Amino acid sequence: MSCKPTVTPSIDQIDIPALRAKYAAEKARRLRREGQSQYVRPSGDIAPDFATDPHKPVAPRAALDEVLDVLVIGAGWGGIKASYYLAKEGVTNFRNIDTAGDFGGVWYWNQYPGVQCDNDAYCYLPLLEEMGFMPSKKFSDGAEIQAYAKSIAERFGFADKGLFHTQVTSVKWDDRIQRWQVGTSRGDNIRARFVIVASGVLNMPKLPSVKGIEKFRGKVFHTSRWDYGYTGGAYGNPVLDKLGDKRVAIVGTGATAIQTVPPLGQYAKQLYVIQRTPSTIDERPNPPTDPDWAASLQPGWQKERQANFHRGAQEVYQPGEQDLICDIWTEINRNLSAEIGAMGVDVSMEDYMAKREEMDFRVMERLRARCAALVDDPATAEALKPYYNHMCKRPLSSDAFYPTFNRPNVTLIDVSDEQGLQEMTETGFIAGGVEYPIDCMIFASGFEVTSDLERRWSIGTFEGRDGVSIYDHWRDGPATLHGITTHGFPNMGFIGYIQGGINSSVTEHFGRQGAHMAWIIGEALKRGVAVVEPSREAMDAYVKTYNEIKPDFSAMQALCPPGYFNNEGAANNKWALFPGWGYGWDHFEGMLADWRAAGDMAGMDLRS
Fold first, then answer.
1. When you count CB atoms within 10 A of the terminal residue's CB, does the N or C end of the chain come out lower?
2. 168 vs 73, 97, 99, 293, 461, CA distance in Å?
3. CA–CA distance, 266 with 408 (Å, rounded to integer)
4. CB 81 within 8 A of CB 511
């Protein structure tokens, strides 16, 4: 399956200097001096504590006192893929540990009405060929994703090794026994030879720090802790029939909100959608998977599709390559590839980047026109239009979000001039000087993604050799070898967006990190090596190379409104998701494959 370029305005119809000025002005309206500190962690004072699970009761168990070869912190995709590769390496004495009640990570927590994958499930769900599984549609429902995640753990023999509803509270290196001493909220004492930190990027929910929020006497919850007891309905059955007499407000119009606003608008007596920054929202054709297409796929099809998606979303298509994904993520490169191909001449990189910038403006104009065509009220439509570069925020798709604003019971509250929600009272919220009475406030305010580690992780004490805290060690940003290990924290690997290659499929990205660390662990155990740690010299040399070759996205980021991609507009975003390894994903993975093939673990200090 492939697709044609989209119809966009010609460059002659677009005033690029005017749009650049508009983008800058729209960013300035929303920028707050507090940066990441404008958000707080759910701690039980305002909304239920982040560790409180509304989906599953906590089963009592005795505290564990045990010795492991590997402890994997996290049971989402990063933890699942790490455990899968540990099992492939023949490692059996390991556990996953997670605050959630089961495998799935964010797909366990996100049980809100309407939840689906927002990119191609044929790429996003990993190991499809190995598992003999096919998603039921292009954008899988959340329940299907979580069930599939657990099925991988079951198939490869580690489902019964999960420690759930358990929060890691301390991680300390003990050089006397050459192990990590790990404490938990359940009183466990775990001594692990190796630790893989796979906490994920959608791990810690955040709430806006709103004046007066503690005064509100109505119902409050975060979308990742959805309360069906209050709204009615159930996971997978979003009939929110208890909201018929309720005035509801939801904060946010990002990836979660665009999925849950339509059912809220359908069932609530009144719905207020509170928006600081609009999203880019394209159409969302989502038919069932064609069985004839699935039967036609040849071995290796998923890797080929993932590679095609990655080139379309972040790099460039190969000459003559067709877009297999055909959605908002790949539109710019699909259109650009077709136009350059039609020219019949080679273009320089400088010309290519100039044409890509033009295509970005053209695609964004198309998306703004779509919004205007679907929303009846011109003022509401204008407030919902995104004015920024395409990848400033996560590209989204929905056929139901924009039409929801044509309902008489749904009102958009634009808080861009106040840079967010102004204030809450005992009975409602204040925006633009007007008080709106409500019964329920729902926060679709996302997660701590690129903020400081202390905000993202809930591990109070995290100390490597000589009692050095990871939070101090990486105070100014990460320093690693290959984006996975770091000096001073022996026998430890990290999975995430940390100074390495970047793949457009996060499950492939995390999976390859897990595979690399599993290989290191497997080899160490086979060789009788007790301690594996990158040398200071090797780490410094890698960081130097990484910084020298990484692409400079600062000009584009300077025009982006605040959000999690840029840590709320931080000038120096030390935990930025982008740019990644400057020579691209394939080069990075090839470099690590060569490193493993050499077998000597170059740059690592090995101790028996």
1. C
2. 8, 8, 8, 45, 9
3. 11
4. yes
